[in-house]
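Hi U.,

Before I forget, here's the chain from the pilot set. I'm dumping it here mostly so it's searchable later in email.
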Amino acid sequence: MRCWLWCCRSVILAVAGQPVLLYTLNNHSSVYHAVGDACRVLYAPAAAGRLTMSAKEMEPFDVVFTDDHSRVPFLGVAGKFHFLEDRQYPLRDLGRQLALEKEVLPLELRRQGMSVLLPPTVTSQDLQQIVEEGMILMPGNLFVDTGTFESRQQAFANFTFTAMLNEEGGTPPQSLVDCIAHGTVPMFVGKKHLMNYTRFFPYGIVKFSQFAVESAINFMLSAPADAFYVYSNSVKMVQEFFHMRYRAPFPQRLHRHAQAACHALARPQPVLAFVSIYSAKPNFGRRMALRSTWLPLLSLESPKVVYKFFLAGTLLNESSNVDALLRQERDHFDDMVFLVGTNDEYPIGRKGFAALQWVAQHTDAQFWLKLDDDVYLRPRPLFDRFRRMQRAEAYWGAFDFSGRVVRDTNDPHYTSADTWAEDIFPPYARGAALAMSLDLVRQIALEDSKRPFKKILIEDVSYGFYIWQLVFEREVSSVTLLDHDEVHFAMDAKCCTETTHPNNCWLPLDKVTWIVHHASPEILRCMHQADVDAGYYRMTGAKNTPSVGVDDLIRQMLPYDSSVRSALNSSSCPRSGVDGISIASSWEGALPDLCGCVVTPPAHPGKPLQKGGLQELSMGPRLHAV
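Structure:
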């Protein structure tokens, strides 16, 4: 283990006035001499993949950071254990260039580009046989891992695939990070390797149950051309993950994670998540539907989850009946923020940045969750996920790694080359639902106050662009792209399979769906009632009586949003909150079926359906301006 300045003594940090004492394996016993109410944090990297300290030795610590994934899942939190690993990414930006150069090589050269990385000592008969076979068939392609970056670089730099036989431990092994950094596809043998570093990691590796040089060469020569395309693109996405996670020096990362983990333990306990729901002024029906379905369920979460609707600023003159009605709505429900200086323009990038700045200033939550106002949400599994997630440098959502830049100056999504020169945007979480740890929210706001960021008007793209500038242009942070949960998104309220809708079924409703986008007020109420009827939510008492004046307020809204009528007609839930409702604590297996609430259009492969603003493409549904 490398030794930093604080290797032999504890480091004192601070979180909102509470000192944070940081210890390592070299000085952990000195924790018994600490006094006061400090948060005691231990950094305990696992030797040979396993943490060897006893439970008694770790008992005095409030937080333990380790890379022992038998104690805590990769990127996760389990009790006092938080996953954090010290890995290096020395190639930095050069890695992208290497990946691109290998991707454009002629296919026949890529097929011939396999190397083998061996351990320093050959101890088994199987490995000895591989060495002997390799010396005959590809003598210039065998390399020994001596534990240095330089020895591994020989195996990766000029090769497109590398058989990782070096038997290095760690999660992830440093040699794996180095391999991916060179744009090289790793080849694994056996089942002992972790596969969930990122959502795309399984698509960027080759797995053998047993390895022989001749069979590996045959694979390289016979694999379909499409496989090489999938491997190279997946490696590039995994490369971005590792590069962004390991960009900043490890001591800086450790300090930030320690502060965030101790903040989560503070008393009184900070809010788990602040939820910002973006809403256009006239969307009275959507806001009323959310208030009478899943929003009241947020009060059941622990730690607390709070929310606000975020709207453009209101006009102060008397000529706007909508704005006067909005102020009445705000006074009644006290759950709206008007962002002065913004309007309901499209795209809403300016409004999104104003909301982020407001959140940075007005909440001490652990996470920021941004939602659209046409989302049906099952709060419990989502916030269970947040409770098990790293508390710092976290960017969560369903990510797009291939967002194409629009150069047509007449298009509302236009982005100039001066703002972003490449044809593909940096990775970003799609806008239906995305989250960041609060340290990133505050750092974006702080950095912009020092020197304004370059801005993109496309709201969801803009957050990924701010993150990109933090990490790669200003080099003030690392960021982890938490991309494993795309399966829990339904990006459109429809039910289908690839069999029923070939190339027209991208992230539909499913038995594991937490988040449904493009849900009308009627669909929102139907889905909530479906969850109640299935027993997922349980009514434990009488429904509360709607607040005085709500019906009158809704009738005033009707001329501006006819969908608000469903709030008058709805009997499934009260219109101003839920009394006596609970979440089924023993629920297991598939979540209730919501397909009865939606109408799925028939399959139309190759013929995009232009209706209601929805474009069906082979990559999934997209909204266009109408």
